[in-house]
Specification:
single chain, 344 residues, TIM Barrel, four-stranded antiparallel sheet, binds D-mannose
Amino acid sequence: MILTFRWYGNNDLIKLDYIRQIPVVKGIVSALYDVAVGEVWPYEKLMSLRNETKANGLELSVIESIPVHEDIKLGKPSAKILIENYCESIRNMGRAGIHTLCYNFMPVFDWTRSNMAFQLEDGSNALSYDNSEILSADLSDGTKGLPGWSTSYNKKELKFLLDAYKELSPEGLWENFAVFIKKTAPVAEEFGIKMGIHPDDPPWPIFGLPRIMTDEAALDRLIGVYDSPSNGLTLCTGSLGASSGNDMVKLTEKYAGMDRISFAHVRNIRITNTGQFNETAHNTGSGSLDILGIMKALKKAGFSGPLRPDHGRMIWGEQGKPGYGLYDRALGAMYLAGIWEGLE
Ligand code: DNO
């Protein structure tokens, strides 16, 4: 296992030399933030990102994410050229010596929360989700009504997208996914890259949009579409684990055993009701998930890929990007590395 840490590039409040001071962290998870969605990611930019992390003693282990253009998910005619561009970005990653790619296939909305600063008993803040609040979110002025939403769509753009998806069933989304992965995964194979799809977060439909990467049946289907270690999963324990029907230790054992876990996001959440959860500290006792059991399952399967602590709470007065402060993620990194060392 390679312990990694997400870094949002030079605008990130958390600098690489701080990340380097977390003794267990060896790799960086990052992306290019100045390439328009659908364009080819240039080799030179990927290479300079890698050199920058290297100059700080850290390997660029994972690209999270190259966004998948909505036209690909919608199966529009332009998907053909957009998928070809995606393949070229994968080739450029390979040429730049980066071997893991995390991406998702969630229509319009990536991960979604209803409260970015939910107060926990100990006075710290964490992200939380409540289905009823999300259902009543005001989308009449685009994504402005959504807390913490970063990719902004104005009123017109959002309406256009939501209308376009009205025509698309979950089966239709699967078909478009199959077209995408059958083209991209062989290129990833050829260039020594493991792709890992990020499960839908939360793992159920929101705003009437189809969501397909939600449970064991979906993961089996994903593998069935194109069977290769280059077509794997980003095991995001807090995303899949938000649905109590997903037994995370069992799923980890199964897919790690099949060598289909390309990358792991390990974090804990507390399920408070159906469709309702809040994020917690990483350790097993703080939330509903058996983090030790998950790490044991990865270890037992000989998992050797990148793994990162995921969203942290805001503690010790830290201000910053919700979920992506330094302190609690660093605690998470130490906890996860400690478990691993113990298992070794
Ligand atoms: C949230 C992240 C996601 C993830 C994308 C991957 O913190 O896990 O935004 O990067 O879904 O494509």
